[in-house]
Amino acid sequence: MDIQLSHVNKRFGDACVIKDVSFTVAAGEICCLLGPSGSGKTTLIRLMIGALPADSGTIRFGDTEMPNMAILKRLGFMPQNDALYEDLSAQGNLAFFGGLYHLPKRTREARIAEVLDMVELTDHKRKLVKNFSGGMKKRLSLAIAILHEPDILFLDEPTAGIDPVLRRKIWAQFQALKAQGTTIIVSTHVMDEVIECDKGALLYNGKLIEYDSVDRLLEKTGSGRIEELFFAASESEARP
């Protein structure tokens, strides 16, 4: 199902952090929310999944306005900060979240094995999470987010702080999920990650400065580097 944002606004006190944002993500696409730290990416994801109410505007998944409990069950969310139980093993974390998703025992056990294999943690399934590296925690967080086979997956800075080799592996996993029909919304401040996506939503100071296919966004630059669009937005704001 499509995701449609229409004139969404959000304030925290006197600060307007999301300013009249509108765009549509087609089902089965990877859409990148791209922007520097503080541009509003995390807030926008929290609005889209219903964790925050918008002050104005609407967010719809298909014909259903969010938040909606029936739709929430079809979403997966990987937060920026790993939401893991450090005193449980990888397998224990997955079993716990599988229970929250109300997966039947046989289905849960099969899915745990599948997602551990997908993120290459099968050999570490009984290791306590407190003994995991940062990259292993990222992969386990992804496994938890996809455990219940969501239709739409939200990923908040999933590759922050990890090495380039692991980043490539994680993006390969995202592409595999897309091939299975999953719609993916991924936030990042790493400019070159936009080329992995179908669409790019460029956020700057809470505003949507560009939204288009990645190919067309790159055509708008002189060098093929997406940073140019942010430089142009910064210069435009600086003018009297």
From TrEMBL:
It comes from Planococcus rifietoensis. One of its GO terms (molecular function) is ATP hydrolysis activity. Residues 3-230 form the ABC transporter domain. PROSITE patterns: ABC_TRANSPORTER_1, ABC_TRANSPORTER_2. SMART domains: AAA. InterPro entries: AAA+_ATPase, ABC_transporter-like_ATP-bd, ABC_transporter-like_CS, P-loop_NTPase. The lineage of its organism: Bacteria, Bacillati, Bacillota, Bacilli, Bacillales. Gene3D superfamilies: P-loop containing nucleotide triphosphate hydrolases. The keyword Nucleotide-binding applies. This is ABC transporter ATP-binding protein. Keywords: ATP-binding, Nucleotide-binding.
